[in-house]
Amino acid sequence: MAKAAEVGYQSYAKRFIYRFDAQQSHTMLIEWLESIENAHFWLQATSTAHSLLYPKIPTPVGGITLDYPMMLAAGFVKGHGFADESTAIQAVKAQQNIIPGWRIVPRLVGPVEFGSFTRYPRIGNTGRVMWRDRRHLSTQNRVGLKNPGAQAAALFLSERKDQLPSQFGINIAPSPGVDDERESIQHVIEAMGVFIKRGVLPTWFTLNLSCPNTEDDPSGAQTESSARNMCGYVMQFLNKNQVDVPLWVKISPKLAPEQYATLLKVFHELGIKAVIATNTLGMPSPEDETLTAGVGGAILHKEATTALTLLRNASIEHGYKVDLIGCGGLLNGDSYNSFKNLDVVAMQYWSALIFRGPFAGAIILSEYERL
Ligand SMILES: Cc1cc2nc3c(=O)[nH]c(=O)nc-3n(C[C@H](O)[C@H](O)[C@H](O)COP(=O)(O)O)c2cc1C
After folding, report:
1. Is the beta carbon of 330 within 6 A of some atom in ligand 1?
2. Region 2-11: what's the mean pLDDT?
């Protein structure tokens, strides 16, 4: 069944996806999702396809039990960018679908991490911001945290609470360009707070300390003291408000070995339930080497497994209780296996959605089972 789904997707991709450049096809896909989000036929078809291809595999990880060991990573269902909060809120009030895919995509692929959302809306970077490299099964982007902002996203989702998927994550990122640490923490707490206040309680929250595609250097947020402050205050906020949603943290590839050990210690001490390793790898953009664009897919896989190995070593040595979630180049049975060998219980993918299609999760698992 998974094989047939893949053959179908590859012939579709040749005609409708690979014919256009990465950004064009992404835009077309998002527009299409936006237009079918409430169409009975597609809601029914996606649910049926999902139930045929994705049998439930209860997977305890990060303080919850996922229905399936693979999730769609942050950055696909993240919403439109807006210049300011009032425009974003107006769009919600005008019944615009500001987060295309919020309903259809989880029906099709299972658990999805929505976002990243920042406290205030962002237009993101302009010009060409997405590339794909079919030969190396890799993607590159400098989308730059384009999103509608937490207020509008929370309002939008709260008005559709009864249609929200049974499991989903919300990924919150610090506001780029905010240098004052207290203000940055305040923004993150406010962003989470608006979802909570509106009763949009995800299955997990992810704090994204690692976006390489903005004007900020993500390594700054991942020093021991910054991570401890940011994660500590967020945990305090969740505990104080008795929010029963586990916090996960997403980190970068290519940090210094001792930095992974230190971060895991901090996460363990603060009660963070899982760490997602990793976000994309910042590299020169294909069109302007003075700009950074994050690489995902096969090229990232080695860096992601290195990060996971270092995290796992620290965990074994010190008995840390933070689950590892693999992300980076999960594209087939082999990469699933390499994560599995590192005691990774759940995984996320983004590039596989492009190269293997909407049933990537099922296809990857069936390949792994055949290994
Ligand atoms: C176009 C694009 C946008 C992304 N946006 C985000 C984001 O907003 N927040 C985030 O945490 N990760 C984001 N990511 C990173 C992915 O979630 C994932 O960590 C990365 O692509 C590595 O997985 P992969 O190798 O399966 O692609 C984005 C990735 C892509 C390709």
Report:
1. yes
2. 80
For residue range 15-45, what is the model confidence (pLDDT) as tens digits? 778 888 999 999 999 999 999 999 999 999 9
- What is the span of the domain harbouring residue 89? 2-370
Query: Which single residue is written with the structure tokens 């940055």?
Result: 184
Computed over its alpha carbons, how large is the radius of gyration of the chain?
19
Q: Name the residue with the closest Cα to ligand 1, atom 7.
A: 75
Cα of 137 vs centre of ligand 1, distance in Å, is 14
What gap in Å lies between CA 181 and CA 210, rounded to an integer? 15
Closest residue by Cα to residue 344 from 317, 304, 291: 304
Asked if 298 and 138 count as a contact pair (C-beta separation under 8 A), the reply is: yes
Tell whether ligand 1 has an atom less than 6 A from the beta carbon of residue 280. yes
Q: Which of the 8 DSSP states describes residue 174?
A: P
Q: How many domains does the chain have?
A: 1
Q: Closest residue (by CA) to atom 19 of ligand 1?
A: 279
CATH of the domain at 119: 3.20.20.70
**353: helix, strand or coil:** helix
Q: Which of 133, 188, 280, 327 to mutate to test the pocket of ligand 1 (most atoms within 8 A of CB)?
A: 280
Q: Which among 183, 184, 123, 115 has a CA at the least distance from the CA of 154?
A: 115
* Nearest alpha carbon to residue 75 among 319, 266, 279: 279
**Close Cβ partners of 222 (under 8 Å, ≥ 6 residues apart):** 209, 210, 251, 252, 255, 259, 263
